[in-house]
Write a structure and sequence with these properties.
Layout lengths: L1 H5 L5 H14 L5 H22 L10 H13 L4 H20 L26 H17 L15 H14 L3 H5 L6 E2 L4 E5 L5 E5 L2 H20 L25 H14 L8 H14 L4 H8 L4 H7 L4 H11 L4
Antiparallel strand pairs: 1-2, 2-3
Helix pairs in contact: 2-3, 3-5, 4-5, 6-7, 7-9, 7-11, 12-13
Length: 331
């Protein structure tokens, strides 16, 4: 930021880089958010240079220029959702510029977001998920002579994979939150799990019995892998979920979690569209089905706004009918 301010007349790209630096250092944004915002804003600055000239400045930008840029994105074949994400990044950038008194007015406020179709997330039923998890537990208990994790086909690791499913579905956490869990975050005495969400916000979620049992069954094999890799120091303080060899970075990646969840879902007869976030949707939906308060679900999911929680939950037609039959005087 100081280098930009030292420049007599910073270019849009310089202001963009300054904003990205703020996201990284001051706001604690996730690496995914930083990458996405960097891509969207730098692409927009290239558009400004091409249309307004290389000597253009951020205070030259009017709302018409932003609208024209969105039209350009549509012309490139981007969907409404992708265009809306680009606009969200631009808006965040211009809000920051306005707070820095770089702009007298914020042109992005005059640009409306594209209307997005509302899709209810399709989630497996509670019976389907429970059946899958019970099968994983039974399979794990029945296998006495198991190969070491690094020699299993496709990197499969039943003990760890069960923990992945139990925590994603049992706690409703995000994929990024899952891989970010460290062993000290398991607070056995209080039966809770410390989770670090978006913007480095921390929250506690209940650690259910099934998840706790799965973790305890997994920890011995985790310790074995770490010791074989010469990383004994990570046994009590490192990441909970590790890759099968613990080489280079031992922490399991979100991409690996996605592959694991999808492979197990397909093998169990579920839709190929099941991914880690599907289990988060299922967590909220199934709790709502069983009568949980929406505000409590919001707290567990770590949502800042209740409207976000409402999008993560859905009631079946039969449940709506049951509520109507029980509560309406003319039912």
């Amino acid at each position: 930021m100081s280098k930009v301010l030292a420049t007599r007349n910073p270019t849009p790209l310089e202001w963009a880089n300054a904003f990205v630096a703020v996201l990284q250092t001051e706001r604690g944004s996730s690496p995914h958010t930083v990458r996405a915002y960097t891509r969207e804003i730098q692409t927009f600055t290239t558009y400004l240079s091409d249309t307004l000239g290389a000597d253009s400045r951020v205070d030259d930008v009017q709302h018409q220029h932003i609208r024209a840029y969105l039209v350009t994105l549509y012309g490139q074949g981007l969907t409404r959702a992708s265009t809306a994400r680009a606009l969200a990044a631009i808006r965040a950038w211009f809000r920051w510029l306005a707070k820095q008194d770089v702009l007298q007015s914020n042109p992005s406020q005059l640009v409306c977001s594209p209307r997005l179709p509302k899709h209810l997330p399709r989630v497996p039923s509670a019976e389907q998920v429970n059946s899958l998890l019970n099968a994983m537990e039974t399979s794990q208990e029945g296998a006495a002579d198991r190969m070491p994790p690094d020699r299993k086909p496709h990197g499969g690791w039943p003990e760890r994979d069960r923990v992945v499913w139990e925590l994603l579905y049992g706690c409703g956490i995000r994929n990024s939150e899952l891989v970010g869990i460290n062993v000290p975050d398991l607070q056995w005495g209080n039966e809770v799990l410390l989770v670090r969400g978006k913007g480095r916000k921390e929250r506690y979620v209940p650690l259910g019995d099934a998840a706790a049992i799965a973790i305890r069954a997994y920890l011995p094999s985790r310790e074995e892998v770490l010791r074989q890799a010469g990383k004994s120091a990570l046994v009590d303080a490192g990441p909970l979920l590790i890759n099968a060899t613990a080489r280079s970075s031992a922490r399991l990646t979100t991409r690996s979690v996605g592959r694991t969840v999808k492979a197990i879902a397909i093998a169990s007869g579920l839709s190929a569209g099941v991914h880690p976030h599907t289990l988060r949707h299922a967590f909220g939906t199934h709790m709502l089905e069983d009568g949980a308060d929406l505000r409590a679900i919001q707290e567990l999911l770590g949502h800042a706004r209740l409207s976000t929680t409402q999008r993560y939950t859905q009631l079946t037609v039969s449940q709506v009918q049951q509520v109507y039959d029980k509560t309406h005087p003319r039912a």
